[in-house]
Amino acid sequence: MDAPSPTPAAKIHWRIIGNSARGASHFKSGLPNQDAISSWLPESGLGPPAILAIADGHGSPQHFRSASGSQLAVEAATALLLSFTKLHSSHHTLAELQSDAAELPQRLVENWAAKVSAHLALNPFRDEEFSRIGEALEAGAEAEIARNPSVAYGATLLAVLMDHSYSLCIQIGDGDILFVDDAGKTSRPVPADARLIANQTTSLCQAEAWKNFRLHVESPVENPPALVLISTDGYANSFASDEDFLQIGADFLGLAREGGLDQLAEDLSA
Question: What is the pLDDT of residue 131?
Fold first, then answer.
């Protein structure tokens, strides 16, 4: 998501580009690409409002429908944030925005769970889905899926809404939301979750998942970022250090300004 030049928030124009690719570990294990991406812009192709959502399915054996879970997650997030923009098209105080945003996690989990139930009704679990995971399935996991079918669809979710006078970030699980200022300085607007170590992550499929969401609401956006980057954890994990990873903010901003977003979008798809 990119705003290519420093302008007041009311006059800024957002475009969205993105791509998802199957990671090396998935090639090695035979897993499909379990990421999903969804975005929304006005018919003109320029925001605000601008909405971008990404999700990352879990690679563990019991989450064998996480590719579908990811797609359902970004659909639910995009629709919910679009409704949020319509309810907040006029001026609202920061306290009002924060109060209304605090209701989003539970509504999002409920909407995702409803989509999962509808998908499962049309596509009942098949014996071969369980047989493929075989001995790798931890003891009790099949019973867990029987109690809570959404486990098979487990996924993380990250989404950003940039509107005329406010920004909203929402996240459950690992991955990164980065704001890059006009000078290339990169920061994380969403507070960190200290529980996310190694390959551990919170998930949409967990009980009371809405309690694990982290939010960031800013209003007014006096110094809007020049660039917003969202990525699943696999991207950050490919860097030697967090410092190296954060350098991508300045790098991508430079590429966008030098070659334009169309060229950058082409490069991302290569």
Answer: 74
Query: Whole-model pTM?
Result: 0.90
Q: Give the tokens for residue 197.
A: 């170590």
Number of Cα atoms under 13 Å in the Cβ half of residue 8: 2
**Distance, CA of 149 to chain centre:** 22
Phi then psi dihedrals of residue 50, to 5 deg: -135, 135
Distance from C-alpha of 216 to C-alpha of 158, rounded to nearest angstrom: 12
DSSP 3-state of 26? helix
Q: What is the pLDDT of residue 90?
A: 80
User: Which parts of the chain have pLDDT scores under 70?
Assistant: 1-11, 21-33, 132, 134-139, 270
31 DSSP 8-state letter: P
Q: What is residue 248's predicted lDDT score, i.e. its pLDDT?
A: 95
Residue with tokens 């098979």: 152
Which residue type sits at 223? N
With contact defined as beta carbons under 8 Å apart, do 133 and 64 qualify?
yes
pLDDT attached to residue 92:
86
Q: What is the DSSP string of 51-81?
A: EEEEEEE--STT-TTHHHHHHHHHHHHHHHH
Contact 166, 217 (CB under 8 A): yes
